[in-house]
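Subject: complex prediction, re-run

Hi both,

The earlier run crashed halfway through, so I resubmitted it with identical inputs.
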Amino acid sequence: MKLYVIGIGPGGADQMTPRALSAMQKSDIIAGYTVYIDLVRDYIGNKEILQTPMKQEIDRCVKARDAALTGKTVSMICSGDAGVYGMAGLMHEVCAEYPELEIEVIPGITAACGGAAVLGAPLVHDFAVISLSDLLTPWETIAKRLDFASQADFSICLYNPSSRKRADYLQKACNIVLQSKAPDTPCGIVRNIGRDGEQGTICTLAELRDAKVDMFTTVFIGNSQTKVIHGKLVTPRGYENK
Amino acid sequence: MKLYVIGIGPGGADQMTPRALSAMQKSDIIAGYTVYIDLVRDYIGNKEILQTPMKQEIDRCVKARDAALTGKTVSMICSGDAGVYGMAGLMHEVCAEYPELEIEVIPGITAACGGAAVLGAPLVHDFAVISLSDLLTPWETIAKRLDFASQADFSICLYNPSSRKRADYLQKACNIVLQSKAPDTPCGIVRNIGRDGEQGTICTLAELRDAKVDMFTTVFIGNSQTKVIHGKLVTPRGYENK
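This time it finished cleanly. Structure:
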């Protein structure tokens, strides 16, 4: 009994790996959030679809598990990488009592990598990835990670920088980061990575604090060596030019 | 004048995106480290090859730049993602005086994502990526990042955990991490991600300290919530089950 948890990348077929595509095509059932199902519908043929709305992640994984337990091969699809804020962890958790289920995680291009490529090369050296969503994580934990990552001079990639209920979270995050990083630290914002309307913007950390972002945005904050070269955000790989 | 900097993923064609493959096929010249050139030779047809040995990264980028300046389309290939310890940054730096060169970075599956998928789902929540190579970074900087990342309870992915000259670096790194993380923190090691001989191993942080690793290994250290489920390393996405 086989359950794939698949990262489909940013959305387009050109950034989905053959391994991801092949697993979907070998499956009897494709499970996932409605928006992601729509992204792959053209490539999977006529499959049974198990879709659930946003935020019903546990329900989504349980349904996929139960379908796999009937002997069907099931693919649970995630945007980006299944292992970065995706379903790979939760799927292992909901299947904990069913060791007979074989779970295979298939990686994809996550927004940190896809967005970095749009901006230039902000994550070429050590970096931290932090989600600003406090739905499942206390804000104190998020704040602590922002603070330590800034003190350590990591480049930082922020997932889920904003939503309607959390309109001021990027500002709160920048206020923490500004305690350790300079206001003129080069930063970047990417909207709709790998999709129609993809747009990268470069700004300073001070400007980022007041930037408008939404749930389709990924944010990048440079380290102390990051610079802007011809409109691209570039973090040197080492300190040879310091 | 076009210069692609391409992440080819772990190595096999099945984890290379169509976008990466298409850019190589559109190019006149493929540039890269000899070992990576060999990984793609079967897919690119009869192209001019510009290869340089390991560690001659600046020379490699300059040669690719100069070839592109003659009007040829050039692909510089990197294993994993071009933007994570890859050539994307250095290429922008060596082309700084040549704004007429258009550089396009094409992302790939980096070892953090590829290795995490082999182990289960260790990086599903916030994480830090740190290279233990001190060729271009002072050890003090690496040590500081290890310390802060551990204090912040990030999951941590270590690139370049060892080499012949740095045989004890993983041990030194674990000694720092052990100041903040428990000795029984679940960890994992992956060798030859996405290639022949791929092998994932789960251990504790205390065991990791004395593990044998080499330059083909990527190391994963869990956060305080990470657990082992049926031999897989799983970090919960949130703290709902705490």
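The radius of gyration of chain A is 19 Å.

- K.
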